[in-house]
C-alpha cells in the first residue's frame, strides 16, 4: 500500500470520480474548520486543530467514508439515520448529494469537543 506524504498526493492517486468527491469534502472541511490544518493520518486525509484530529475522510469504491470519532455519531444519531454508520464511521453513498449542513454541524461539534478538552 502506498504511503501518502500529503493530501494532494492522496487525491492524485484516485480515479477522477472519487477525486472529485474527495476534493469537494476537502474544500468543505477547509471552510467549516478554517483554523484546522490538513494532514495525512492513518494514511487518510484528515483535518487537525489544536493538536487533535477533528475528522478523517476516505473515498472507497461505493461511498465516501467520513470518520468523526464516536461522540458526534451518538450526538447526531437521528440525523444520521439515512446513512449507514457505525461507532466511528459514516458512509455517504456517491449516488446522493453530500449532506453539507450535517457535515458542517459535525465538524463544529468536533471543534467544540477538542476545545473543551483542552480547557
UniProtKB/TrEMBL annotation:
This is YdhG-like domain-containing protein. Residues 18-111 form the YdhG-like domain. The lineage of its organism: Bacteria, Bacillati, Bacillota, Bacilli, Lactobacillales. Pfam families: DUF1801 (PF08818).
Amino acid at each position: 500500500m502506498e504511503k501518502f506524504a500529503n493530501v494532494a498526493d492522496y487525491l492524485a492517486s484516485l480515479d477522477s470520480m472519487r477525486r472529485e468527491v474527495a476534493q469537494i469534502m476537502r474544500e468543505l472541511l477547509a471552510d467549516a474548520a478554517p483554523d484546522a490544518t490538513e494532514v495525512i493520518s492513518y494514511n487518510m486525509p484528515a483535518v487537525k486543530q489544536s493538536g487533535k484530529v477533528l475528522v478523517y475522510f476516505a473515498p472507497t469504491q461505493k461511498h465516501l467514508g467520513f470518520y468523526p470519532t464516536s461522540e458526534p455519531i451518538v450526538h447526531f444519531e437521528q440525523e444520521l439515520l439515512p446513512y449507514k454508520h457505525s461507532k466511528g464511521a459514516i458512509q455517504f453513498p456517491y449516488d446522493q448529494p453530500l449532506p453539507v449542513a450535517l457535515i458542517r454541524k459535525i465538524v463544529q461539534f468536533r471543534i467544540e469537543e477538542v476545545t473543551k478538552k483542552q480547557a
